[in-house]
Write a structure and sequence with these properties.
single chain; alpha+beta; Topoisomerase I, domain 4; 20% strand; globular; DNA topoisomerase 3; DNA topoisomerase type I (single strand cut, ATP-independent) activity; TOPRIM_dom; topoisomerase; EC 5.6.2.1
Length: 726
Amino acid sequence: MRKKAILAEKPSVGRDIARVLGANQKGNGFFEGKDVIVTWGLGHLVTHADPEHYGEQYKTWRLEELPMLPKRLDLVVIKQTSKQFHTVKKVLNRQDVGEVIIATDAGREGELVARWILAKAHVKKPIKRLWISSVTDKAIKDGFKKLKDGRQYENLFAAAEARAEADWYVGINGTRALTTKHNAQLSCGRVQTPTLAILAAREKAIQSFKPVPYHTLQVSVDGGAMFRWYNQKSGDERIFDEAEAKALKEKIKGKAVAITSVKAKKKFTPAPHLYDLTELQREANKRYGYSAKETLGALQKLYEQHKAVTYPRTDSRFLSSDLVDTFKERLKAIDVQPFRKTVLEASKLGTQHAKKQMVNDAKVSDHHALIPTEQAPPISAMNDKETKLYYLIVRRFLANFFPASESEQTVVEAEIANETLRTKGERMISLGWRQNEDEDQAKESKLPKLTEGEKLSVNHTDLKRGETTPPARFNEATLLTAMEKPAQFMEEKDATISKTLAEAGGIGTVATRADIIEKLFSSFLIEKKGKDLFVTSKGKQLLDLVPEELKSPALTAEWEQRLEKIVQGKEQKSAFIADMKKYAHSVVGQVKADTTKFRHDNKTGEKCPECGKFLLEVNGKKGKMRVCQDRECGYRKNIAMTTNARCPKCKKKLELRGQGDAQVFACVCGHREKKAQFEERRKQSKNKNVSKREVNNYMKKQNKQDDFANSALADQLAKLGLNKEK
């Protein structure tokens, strides 16, 4: 009997599949059973070849050799993981293997991982596809009962490969052109550059903003109600003319307030929709300060290791109708503290409302919304971050079993000296889903009983002064929103572009946005102050140097639309790539013709110990570092890092400065202590929140903070030396 070879994306998933299918005989990089062999990648095992693969002239970075436009892009085995590739190749090409089952992540990138391995391993055997949204035992068993023909996913692979090739042609040519032209590490990309442009446009709006003073007129009456004057035509409560405001206050002096209208209206507020990845990243950043990358990393653990949630890289906030039958099992799985009471109530309510609230087949594409699995969670094995995210997902799932909250909103209008006043109040009638959401309880603002025609004496009038405020700076949560709906944040409004962006789902994908934000940090194009994001001098100059269309969100949106057409079979990959080559040629031409100069304005007086050129001081995501200005050198050192250790005086986060034995913890309040003293104090203290081991682990993480994410383009850029960007 011929065996089936199953290719998973990662070892953890491969081990789970092997266990479920009874493949218990362990090999070196695979498990084998009676009729199956399970092996795995380590993410990508194969990638596009470096530019120098296509000719000696590309080994050195020279502007005159650009653009690089090979007729086709060749695949190579990634050196660091070549041992596992050869294991996989051997398994897939065994004579007793008659069929290959792709069990990589069910999405565009997962398809690319598998197909590139199959192509480089020269596998020509029939292919089946496992397509599942969670890796619980039940999901794996059910998935293998419903395997798909691999040919159904040929277009998905074509779109995935088209994306990777387009990023190579445009990203690498644009990056090499900018870097060689200006002798500085400058990278551009179809998602990264428009995201940076959105941040820069907001910064420009803030800097050019001029506050305008205004007044509001408040009138308090007998019984405690507080009314505010408003303009009956515009509805605006602000008065921008000070003289007019003072005259208005004088006009109503000594007059009575007559109630002209009391209108009460019931308001029903349903539970918020289930989480997709972007919404959960926003929520986690707002509540806990987690970066988009941190949230995605913890979710991957919840999905792969703990089997507690469904596939995280989803852009849907709804479920498909076939999942309704699993609600009972999912409720049983989450019937643990602190959810037992809520689960009991949800079970009593049944699935009728939940089905209406959560299910919409038309709004589910490859993957449904993030929900808990049918497998009881190992909460004791989760770390704090994973637990918090899991609780958010469970609470949102449970909330959708409950009816809408009901409140009564009352709007009271009044008249005084022919001027209009109003006040509003709200009273909760039924909490509905809110009864289980402590942090989302509706705030009541009760009014005293007021009746139409009633006249009230004025106790006090007051003019409150205010100023118009500039738009808020972006933080990671609001930047994710801007990437999802970029048309709202563009300076120029264009109906066609807005429609394109809406249809494409914004710029980037739910799976890549976290990496894009991290790339902006690691390239020193943006920096963080508190929670707010700022564009660096390097970032501003880069936007002056890149071709104009690369800054527009419309470009990447159009790309994503065309990639989706490839998935649907409505466009050929070859046509898309031909256009990308033309565009790469255009980008290089524009960079060559540009006369704008780039200058380092962050030079220090310290020289590089390796090449002697002056170092640049830059702000990494979590601290300051000094890097060599020479892109060929790549020297860098950390000089200050914000840690999680707290100052013993003011309790603010301490900064770790210096190198080696001379390292010092310092605080903005002036407190300073040597690292050795700090560790000794912590050792003696009963508070063991920060240990020597934790400090050292934190420092190791800091040293990795500027690494690229594991994506095809990032790997290529890293090989070009851009993991040492200035």
